[in-house]
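HOLO CASE FILE
Compound: D-xylitol-5-phosphate
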Amino acid sequence: MNDTIISPSILSCDFLNIETELKYFEKIPNLWIHLDVMDGHFVPNLTFGHPIIQKISKVTNHLLDAHLMVSNPEFYIKTFSNYNIHNITFHLEATSNAQEALKIIEQMKSSYASVGISIKPGTPVSAISDDIFKRIDLLLVMSVEPGFGGQSFIETTYDKLNQIKDVKKRLNLKFDVQVDGGVTDENAKKLIEHGVSNLVAGSYIFKNSPKKYQSIVEKLRN
Ligand code: DX5
Ligand code: ZN
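Model generated. Tokens follow.
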């Protein structure tokens, strides 16, 4: 058992019963609720936005983790700021250069306790500038193409995690490393050994009956 944060992605939950689904996680420590916001533009799929996240913020005792898979992250900085979101992550690929990404990070920092940047499987770690590394609280490494739950984990993610370890050492930084996509009990241990401090899991958790959610979450930490 370790203190890795587990972030259930409600993308795979029963949308007709979100409140009930969230109740099953109430007593589990070190847990964030991962919210996949997709705009049908940055990614082909479309999920949920403001009204649903507002409701969710009222019925969970856990920290909220918004993963913006949108082309215009700036728009959400203000509009999401009243929903008690703890961590907000946007994609580097949604920006045209490091200056723009840094500007968004700075703006987010005034409204959110934690700000993250994410890279898709095809984006190298070297695309993230040192200035960005120095300002983020979290780096989300996508281990599947963003857009859909239930895909298989991409093994080259481990190479990226090694590179990120090197960057953290070189710059003496402590940001969290989150991995999202195809996370199961089969790769969780190896991911943690590669420096991951936060694991997102959707289908691996929600394909089970709710009574098993807690033991499934704990299994990811073993
Ligand atoms: C995919 C999302 C993920 C997704 C993960 O674009 O960012 O959070 O829900 O789902 P699984 O764990 O099923 O791969
Ligand atoms: Zn996600």
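CASE NOTES: The chain has nine helices and eight strands. The radius of gyration is 16 Å.
CLOSED: yes
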